Amino acid sequence: MTKAEYQRFAGVYALMLTPYNDDLTVNYDVYAEYTEFQTATGVGHLFAVCGTSEMAELTLDEREKLAKTTVRYAGGTPVVATANLEPSWFAQVDEVKRMSQTGVDGLIFVTKGMHDDPERQYTYLSELATHTELPLFLYEFPGIQPHKMEADVYKKLVDTGRFVGIKDTTSNMHDILEKIAVQGDSNVLQANVPLLLEAWKKGARGVMATPTSCGAQLFQRMWDEFTAGDLAAAELTLQYINHLDNAIDSGFNASAKYLVQLQGVKGMKPINRGHSTLSEPRMQSLRTYYDWAKANGLAF
Questions:
Q1: In the chain, what are the domain boundaries?
Q2: CATH architecture of structural domain 3-213
Q3: What does the DSSP 8-state code read for residue 246?
Q4: What is the pLDDT of residues 110-129, one digit of tens each?
Q5: Rounded distance between C-alpha atoms, residue 6 and residue 51, angstroms
Q6: Sign of the CA dihedral running 275, 281, 284, 286
Q7: Rounded to an integer, what distance in angstroms lies between the CA atom of residue 67 and that of residue 178?
Q8: Alpha carbon 121 to chain centroid distance?
Q9: pTM beyond 0.85
Protein backbone atom coordinates (compact mmCIF):
# COMPACT_ATOMS: atom_id res chain seq x y z
CA MET A 1 0.00 0.00 0.00
CA THR A 2 1.36 3.41 -0.97
CA LYS A 3 1.69 6.38 1.37
CA ALA A 4 -1.13 8.13 -0.50
CA GLU A 5 -3.39 5.13 0.08
CA TYR A 6 -2.71 5.34 3.82
CA GLN A 7 -3.30 9.09 3.80
CA ARG A 8 -6.83 8.75 2.45
CA PHE A 9 -7.79 7.18 5.78
CA ALA A 10 -6.67 10.21 7.81
CA GLY A 11 -9.16 12.80 9.06
CA VAL A 12 -12.52 12.90 10.81
CA TYR A 13 -14.72 9.83 11.28
CA ALA A 14 -18.34 10.47 12.27
CA LEU A 15 -19.54 7.76 14.63
CA MET A 16 -23.02 6.48 13.86
CA LEU A 17 -25.92 6.17 16.31
CA THR A 18 -28.57 3.46 15.99
CA PRO A 19 -32.16 4.75 16.05
CA TYR A 20 -34.83 2.56 17.61
CA ASN A 21 -38.57 2.26 17.55
CA ASP A 22 -40.37 2.25 20.90
CA ASP A 23 -40.07 -1.56 21.03
CA LEU A 24 -36.26 -1.21 20.55
CA THR A 25 -36.24 -2.69 17.06
CA VAL A 26 -33.92 -0.82 14.71
CA ASN A 27 -35.59 1.94 12.69
CA TYR A 28 -33.75 1.66 9.38
CA ASP A 29 -35.75 4.45 7.73
CA VAL A 30 -34.61 6.93 10.37
CA TYR A 31 -31.11 5.50 10.11
CA ALA A 32 -31.06 6.27 6.39
CA GLU A 33 -32.10 9.87 7.14
CA TYR A 34 -29.47 10.10 9.87
CA THR A 35 -26.78 8.81 7.49
CA GLU A 36 -27.64 11.59 5.06
CA PHE A 37 -27.57 14.06 7.97
CA GLN A 38 -24.06 12.91 8.93
CA THR A 39 -22.84 13.04 5.34
CA ALA A 40 -24.20 16.59 4.95
CA THR A 41 -21.83 17.79 7.69
CA GLY A 42 -19.00 17.40 5.17
CA VAL A 43 -17.22 14.86 7.33
CA GLY A 44 -14.53 12.77 5.66
CA HIS A 45 -15.62 9.29 6.81
CA LEU A 46 -18.46 7.43 8.53
CA PHE A 47 -17.89 4.77 11.20
CA ALA A 48 -20.89 2.44 11.21
CA VAL A 49 -21.27 -0.38 13.74
CA CYS A 50 -19.17 1.17 16.52
CA GLY A 51 -19.43 1.44 20.29
CA THR A 52 -21.60 4.53 19.92
CA SER A 53 -23.87 2.45 17.64
CA GLU A 54 -24.35 0.06 20.60
CA MET A 55 -22.73 -2.63 18.47
CA ALA A 56 -22.49 -5.04 21.41
CA GLU A 57 -26.29 -4.91 21.73
CA LEU A 58 -26.94 -5.64 18.04
CA THR A 59 -27.24 -8.97 16.26
CA LEU A 60 -24.96 -9.80 13.34
CA ASP A 61 -27.92 -9.44 10.96
CA GLU A 62 -28.62 -5.96 12.35
CA ARG A 63 -24.96 -4.94 12.13
CA GLU A 64 -24.74 -6.17 8.56
CA LYS A 65 -27.89 -4.30 7.54
CA LEU A 66 -26.71 -1.10 9.24
CA ALA A 67 -23.41 -1.27 7.34
CA LYS A 68 -25.22 -1.80 4.03
CA THR A 69 -27.63 1.06 4.78
CA THR A 70 -24.78 3.40 5.66
CA VAL A 71 -23.05 2.67 2.35
CA ARG A 72 -26.28 3.12 0.42
CA TYR A 73 -27.06 6.56 1.87
CA ALA A 74 -23.53 7.88 2.39
CA GLY A 75 -23.42 9.50 -1.03
CA GLY A 76 -19.90 8.28 -1.68
CA THR A 77 -18.47 9.21 1.72
CA PRO A 78 -16.13 6.36 2.77
CA VAL A 79 -17.60 3.97 5.36
CA VAL A 80 -15.91 1.62 7.82
CA ALA A 81 -17.56 -0.88 10.16
CA THR A 82 -16.61 -3.28 12.96
CA ALA A 83 -16.38 -6.91 11.88
CA ASN A 84 -15.26 -9.19 14.75
CA LEU A 85 -17.83 -9.13 17.52
CA GLU A 86 -19.13 -12.71 17.38
CA PRO A 87 -18.02 -14.96 20.26
CA SER A 88 -16.22 -17.81 18.45
CA TRP A 89 -13.35 -17.80 15.95
CA PHE A 90 -15.34 -19.48 13.19
CA ALA A 91 -18.27 -17.11 13.72
CA GLN A 92 -15.90 -14.16 13.49
CA VAL A 93 -14.43 -15.46 10.23
CA ASP A 94 -17.97 -15.66 8.84
CA GLU A 95 -18.69 -12.17 10.21
CA VAL A 96 -15.60 -10.73 8.51
CA LYS A 97 -16.64 -12.28 5.20
CA ARG A 98 -20.20 -10.99 5.50
CA MET A 99 -19.16 -7.47 6.49
CA SER A 100 -16.65 -7.43 3.63
CA GLN A 101 -19.57 -7.83 1.20
CA THR A 102 -21.56 -4.84 2.53
CA GLY A 103 -19.76 -2.30 0.35
CA VAL A 104 -17.77 -0.68 3.17
CA ASP A 105 -14.34 0.78 2.41
CA GLY A 106 -12.61 -0.76 5.41
CA LEU A 107 -13.17 -3.04 8.39
CA ILE A 108 -12.53 -2.41 12.07
CA PHE A 109 -11.15 -5.15 14.32
CA VAL A 110 -11.61 -4.69 18.07
CA THR A 111 -8.69 -5.79 20.23
CA LYS A 112 -10.84 -8.40 22.04
CA GLY A 113 -9.51 -7.83 25.56
CA MET A 114 -6.11 -9.40 24.86
CA HIS A 115 -3.92 -6.61 26.26
CA ASP A 116 -2.36 -8.96 28.82
CA ASP A 117 -1.24 -11.40 26.10
CA PRO A 118 0.32 -9.30 23.32
CA GLU A 119 1.63 -12.26 21.29
CA ARG A 120 -1.83 -13.83 21.24
CA GLN A 121 -3.31 -10.45 20.33
CA TYR A 122 -0.95 -10.07 17.37
CA THR A 123 -1.50 -13.62 16.13
CA TYR A 124 -5.27 -13.40 16.46
CA LEU A 125 -5.55 -10.10 14.56
CA SER A 126 -3.04 -10.93 11.84
CA GLU A 127 -4.71 -14.30 11.19
CA LEU A 128 -8.19 -12.76 11.10
CA ALA A 129 -6.88 -10.27 8.53
CA THR A 130 -6.32 -13.09 6.05
CA HIS A 131 -10.09 -13.46 5.59
CA THR A 132 -10.65 -10.10 3.87
CA GLU A 133 -8.95 -7.98 1.23
CA LEU A 134 -10.23 -4.70 2.69
CA PRO A 135 -8.04 -2.17 4.54
CA LEU A 136 -8.16 -2.77 8.29
CA PHE A 137 -8.30 -0.60 11.40
CA LEU A 138 -7.83 -1.51 15.05
CA TYR A 139 -10.13 -0.36 17.84
CA GLU A 140 -9.30 -0.36 21.54
CA PHE A 141 -12.95 -1.01 22.38
CA PRO A 142 -13.50 -0.42 26.12
CA GLY A 143 -16.48 -2.77 26.10
CA ILE A 144 -14.13 -5.79 26.12
CA GLN A 145 -11.46 -5.44 28.82
CA PRO A 146 -8.48 -5.21 29.00
CA HIS A 147 -8.82 -3.33 25.74
CA LYS A 148 -5.54 -1.53 25.13
CA MET A 149 -2.81 -2.39 22.63
CA GLU A 150 0.89 -1.84 23.21
CA ALA A 151 2.76 0.25 20.67
CA ASP A 152 5.05 -2.61 19.66
CA VAL A 153 2.06 -4.82 18.80
CA TYR A 154 0.57 -1.99 16.76
CA LYS A 155 3.85 -1.60 14.87
CA LYS A 156 4.02 -5.32 14.08
CA LEU A 157 0.48 -5.23 12.70
CA VAL A 158 1.15 -2.10 10.64
CA ASP A 159 4.27 -3.77 9.28
CA THR A 160 2.11 -6.55 7.80
CA GLY A 161 0.79 -3.98 5.33
CA ARG A 162 -2.85 -4.76 6.17
CA PHE A 163 -3.63 -2.27 8.95
CA VAL A 164 -4.07 1.41 8.10
CA GLY A 165 -4.97 2.90 11.47
CA ILE A 166 -6.10 2.54 15.07
CA LYS A 167 -8.80 4.15 17.19
CA ASP A 168 -6.71 4.92 20.27
CA THR A 169 -8.74 5.10 23.48
CA THR A 170 -5.89 5.17 26.01
CA SER A 171 -6.69 8.79 26.97
CA ASN A 172 -3.17 9.65 28.10
CA MET A 173 -0.40 11.32 26.12
CA HIS A 174 2.27 8.81 27.08
CA ASP A 175 0.49 5.91 25.37
CA ILE A 176 -0.68 8.09 22.49
CA LEU A 177 2.86 9.25 21.79
CA GLU A 178 4.18 5.68 21.89
CA LYS A 179 1.78 4.71 19.09
CA ILE A 180 2.51 7.87 17.10
CA ALA A 181 6.23 7.06 17.27
CA VAL A 182 5.68 3.75 15.45
CA GLN A 183 2.73 4.57 13.20
CA GLY A 184 4.79 4.94 10.03
CA ASP A 185 2.36 5.77 7.20
CA SER A 186 -0.64 4.52 9.20
CA ASN A 187 -3.08 6.73 11.13
CA VAL A 188 -3.38 7.04 14.89
CA LEU A 189 -6.94 8.30 15.31
CA GLN A 190 -7.78 9.91 18.64
CA ALA A 191 -10.87 9.24 20.74
CA ASN A 192 -10.05 11.62 23.60
CA VAL A 193 -11.47 15.12 23.13
CA PRO A 194 -9.41 17.17 25.66
CA LEU A 195 -6.13 15.79 24.25
CA LEU A 196 -7.19 16.04 20.61
CA LEU A 197 -5.28 19.10 19.44
CA GLU A 198 -2.18 18.18 21.43
CA ALA A 199 -2.22 14.71 19.86
CA TRP A 200 -2.62 16.16 16.36
CA LYS A 201 0.33 18.48 16.95
CA LYS A 202 2.42 15.46 17.93
CA GLY A 203 1.46 13.52 14.79
CA ALA A 204 -1.93 11.86 15.30
CA ARG A 205 -3.80 11.89 12.01
CA GLY A 206 -7.49 12.14 12.78
CA VAL A 207 -10.29 11.50 15.21
CA MET A 208 -12.93 8.91 16.10
CA ALA A 209 -14.73 10.41 19.12
CA THR A 210 -18.22 10.01 20.55
CA PRO A 211 -19.36 13.65 20.04
CA THR A 212 -18.96 13.20 16.27
CA SER A 213 -22.24 11.29 16.50
CA CYS A 214 -24.10 14.57 16.90
CA GLY A 215 -21.56 17.32 16.13
CA ALA A 216 -19.33 16.02 13.35
CA GLN A 217 -19.38 19.42 11.66
CA LEU A 218 -17.36 20.91 14.53
CA PHE A 219 -14.69 18.22 14.26
CA GLN A 220 -14.44 18.66 10.51
CA ARG A 221 -14.13 22.41 11.00
CA MET A 222 -11.34 21.88 13.55
CA TRP A 223 -9.53 19.42 11.26
CA ASP A 224 -9.73 21.85 8.34
CA GLU A 225 -8.35 24.64 10.53
CA PHE A 226 -5.57 22.43 11.84
CA THR A 227 -4.48 21.13 8.45
CA ALA A 228 -4.52 24.70 7.11
CA GLY A 229 -2.11 25.68 9.89
CA ASP A 230 -4.57 27.94 11.75
CA LEU A 231 -3.87 26.62 15.24
CA ALA A 232 -5.58 29.53 17.01
CA ALA A 233 -8.84 28.81 15.20
CA ALA A 234 -8.48 25.07 15.89
CA GLU A 235 -7.95 25.81 19.60
CA LEU A 236 -11.14 27.87 19.69
CA THR A 237 -13.15 25.18 17.91
CA LEU A 238 -11.81 22.61 20.38
CA GLN A 239 -13.28 24.74 23.17
CA TYR A 240 -16.68 24.45 21.50
CA ILE A 241 -16.16 20.70 21.06
CA ASN A 242 -15.36 20.37 24.76
CA HIS A 243 -18.66 22.07 25.57
CA LEU A 244 -20.43 19.54 23.33
CA ASP A 245 -18.54 16.65 24.93
CA ASN A 246 -19.62 17.79 28.39
CA ALA A 247 -23.20 18.41 27.24
CA ILE A 248 -23.73 14.81 26.08
CA ASP A 249 -21.66 13.06 28.74
CA SER A 250 -24.57 12.40 31.09
CA GLY A 251 -26.98 9.93 29.56
CA PHE A 252 -24.86 9.12 26.51
CA ASN A 253 -25.85 8.04 23.93
CA ALA A 254 -29.49 9.02 24.51
CA SER A 255 -28.26 12.60 24.96
CA ALA A 256 -26.51 12.55 21.58
CA LYS A 257 -29.66 11.16 19.96
CA TYR A 258 -31.70 13.99 21.43
CA LEU A 259 -29.30 16.56 19.99
CA VAL A 260 -29.62 14.88 16.59
CA GLN A 261 -33.39 15.10 16.95
CA LEU A 262 -33.13 18.82 17.73
CA GLN A 263 -31.02 19.24 14.58
CA GLY A 264 -33.82 17.89 12.40
CA VAL A 265 -33.79 14.08 12.41
CA LYS A 266 -37.16 13.98 14.15
CA GLY A 267 -37.45 10.20 14.27
CA MET A 268 -34.26 9.81 16.31
CA LYS A 269 -35.77 8.86 19.67
CA PRO A 270 -33.53 9.44 22.73
CA ILE A 271 -33.64 5.77 23.77
CA ASN A 272 -31.22 2.86 23.63
CA ARG A 273 -31.02 -0.83 24.45
CA GLY A 274 -29.13 -0.02 27.62
CA HIS A 275 -32.38 1.58 28.82
CA SER A 276 -30.87 5.02 29.37
CA THR A 277 -33.55 7.65 29.64
CA LEU A 278 -33.46 11.42 29.74
CA SER A 279 -35.40 13.31 32.37
CA GLU A 280 -37.24 16.46 31.41
CA PRO A 281 -34.66 18.64 33.22
CA ARG A 282 -31.88 16.84 31.30
CA MET A 283 -33.64 17.44 27.99
CA GLN A 284 -34.15 21.10 28.92
CA SER A 285 -30.42 21.34 29.62
CA LEU A 286 -29.67 19.92 26.17
CA ARG A 287 -32.15 22.31 24.55
CA THR A 288 -30.41 25.20 26.30
CA TYR A 289 -27.05 24.00 25.01
CA TYR A 290 -28.46 23.59 21.50
CA ASP A 291 -29.90 27.12 21.51
CA TRP A 292 -26.55 28.50 22.70
CA ALA A 293 -24.69 26.59 19.98
CA LYS A 294 -26.98 27.91 17.25
CA ALA A 295 -26.70 31.46 18.58
CA ASN A 296 -22.91 31.18 18.41
CA GLY A 297 -22.86 29.98 14.81
CA LEU A 298 -21.68 26.46 15.51
CA ALA A 299 -23.33 25.05 12.36
CA PHE A 300 -26.15 23.32 14.22
A1: 3-213
A2: Alpha-Beta Barrel (3.20)
A3: H
A4: 999 999 999 999 999 999 99
A5: 24
A6: negative
A7: 32
A8: 21
A9: yes
